[in-house]
Design brief:
heterodimer, A: 151 residues, Immunoglobulin-like, 3-stranded antiparallel beta sheet, 2 helices, B: 143 residues, 5-stranded mixed beta sheet, 10 strands
Chain lengths: 151, 143
């Protein structure tokens, strides 16, 4: 070992680095078993934006890689819950991850809305990986103008 | 083995999943008045190709640019930030703007065979590797 250090001071370090990189690759393989594909639910993804006017709410989220019918949107008074499962790409034979940054797995996020909404009048669209949900205040909750009768 | 701990490692840490602004290259100034984001990517490697899967939510094929200059592949996705007339943003977790990210290609990638497609906000780029058979083999004769 000593001679290795004398010949090439970084050689031992290089070897160590190589080993730890291989270890990372092995761990990847272990966790990415395409058969189990179980994932932990994730709280921080996707991220949401929320827009309002007096009677409507627009909620948007960037959730690329899904089909429209794979997204569940539930409305319960003033709570909106969005859930889905983003499948990890299937690894072909002999294929491995060199880098992995994209979210995959199941998520469920609940947003508290500024006011209760009418489920019947709400609609959700999914275009190019962006989810847009439009929610409306129920008629009964909308501000009404009362006519004042004389007498 | 503790399963729940293992499963967590399949996704990057939470802060890395958040949308991140892209650093402006030194000396370069943006020419569009939108923010620039660095998209998340999966890179898959096999014997015959490298596959990039890039999250480009809000981008379709007409709004995607791929340029290859020398050995740098640059991916751009153009976004028109939504404007909801009469609405006010009351809660915001992410910003909206263009996407940009560059990748360095090794010599083993066949430049002519690169293919790209966009679906549901994911750009897939296939970078085929030069076939083993086309590599020149030089026989060393004894003598």
């Amino acid at each position: 070992m000593l001679s290795v250090h004398r010949n090439h001071p970084w050689q031992a370090f290089d070897k160590l680095m190589r080993n730890s990189m291989n270890l990372g690759r092995d761990l990847d393989r272990m966790f990415l078993n395409p058969l189990t594909r179980q994932r932990d639910s994730f709280a921080g993804w996707p991220q949401f934006n929320l827009w309002t006017n007096d009677d409507e709410i627009i909620v948007t989220a960037e959730v690329p890689g899904l089909e429209a019918d794979q997204i569940d949107v539930d409305i319960n008074n003033n709570q909106l819950t969005v859930s889905a499962t983003v499948e990890a790409p299937e690894l072909a034979e002999g294929e491995s991850y060199q880098r992995r940054e994209r979210f995959s797995g199941s998520f469920e996020r609940t947003l508290r809305l500024p006011f209760a909404v009418d489920q019947e009048k709400s609609e959700a669209r999914y275009v190019d990986g962006v989810l847009e949900i439009r929610l409306s205040k129920p008629e009964r909750d909308k501000p009404r103008k009362l006519s004042v009768k004389a007498g | 083995m503790n399963n729940s701990t293992d499963l967590k490692t399949t996704n990057p840490p939470s802060h890395e999943l958040q949308k991140q602004e892209s650093p402006t290259p030194e000396g370069a100034e943006p020419t569009r008045e939108t923010r620039l984001y660095r998209p998340h990517v999966d890179i898959l490697d096999s014997a015959d190709k490298v596959t990039l899967r890039v999250n480009l939510p809000g981008v379709n094929e007409e709004r995607t640019d791929l340029t290859l200059e020398k050995n740098i592949l640059t991916i751009r996705g153009h976004i028109d930030p939504p404007h909801y007339e009469g609405f006010e943003l009351v809660y915001g977790e992410y910003g909206v703007g263009d996407f940009e990210r560059s990748f360095q290609l090794t010599n083993e990638i066949d430049r002519e065979g690169i293919q790209a497609s966009v679906r549901n906000g994911i750009l897939t780029v296939e970078l085929p590797k030069v076939k083993q058979a086309s590599k020149q083999k030089i026989t060393v004769a004894a003598g």
